[in-house]
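The aim of this short unit is practical: by the end, you should be able to scan a pair of folded records and say something sensible about each. We start with the first protein, listed as its amino acid sequence and then its structure tokens.
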Amino acid sequence: MPTFSDHFSTALPYDRYLANGTEEQQRRWMQVYDIAQLDATQQQLVAGFQREMKILIHSGIWCGDCVEQCPLIQRIAEANSAKIDLRFVERQMSRELAEELRINGGSRVPVVQFFSEDGLWCATTGDRTLNRYRALALKRLGPSCPTGILPPEKSEVEATLADWLNEVERVQLMLRLTPRLREKYQD
């Protein structure tokens, strides 16, 4: 059974992951990426992270929810690339984890796994943030999944970005306060 290190070492950084998509898929991801911007306070928060963390996203380059959320996490990682190592793996490429990563009985994406610098599991979350669910509930298009053809509203992007930032900060604080790492770094 492959370990976290095996999965993480074969996962791709954002740009290389996107390069595997069609031109249309890349365009959809980039339109959300272009809308997503951390404000100065958010940038300062992420820049202040002291612990290294690894984030592995099980995604689908084709998936509307991934289109509308993964570029936001990339923006967060870019704000402190020295402390946040973000990688992506196509869900179909990680079949051995499919059962372990099921949410509400289904194979959903994105699923985001957070790990310490030395590969210890900290948290798993997905498939949508609270604000993403709220936006979908308002639109209520039925059982079909969003296509990502049209970009989300800027206010929705900002709210979902804040949700993801809260989760990344929560794990960062977990790493910052854990006795094991405090002893290692003498802080």
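Turning to the second protein, read its sequence before its tokens, just as you did above.
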Amino acid sequence: MNIVIFHNPNCGTSRNVVQIVKDAGFSPTVVEYLVTGWTKPQLQTLFATAGLSARDALRTSKSPAEELGLTGPDVTEEQLLDAMVAHPILVNRPFVACKGQVRLCRPSGQVLEMLPQWPAAPYAKEDGSPLITADGALVPGA
């Protein structure tokens, strides 16, 4: 199964998603979008497939969104997309694409809904917080 993860290695949630996918037995294609950047068509396709708008995907914390004037209600979708192309850090992460679907996997446990198999239980995230219980259930809110 082909899995693509749009990843920021400085983000704990993003690192968790990559590790969850690997520990489930898959070899994802990891795209470090801060290095490769985005194109507007790429973002439009990604967001449309995920059922999100650019505003939904805008990272407002730990990003220059507010300084760039992008958080106001009058900012258009086109303006947001242009800003995201110019400043890739503005796109929230991680986005995961597989089996014809795309999802913004925040929190990281959301990636499990996309996988046909999960890592062996019990399973914890990198900070030690539980994700999968000993009986194989997803920890609520994880």
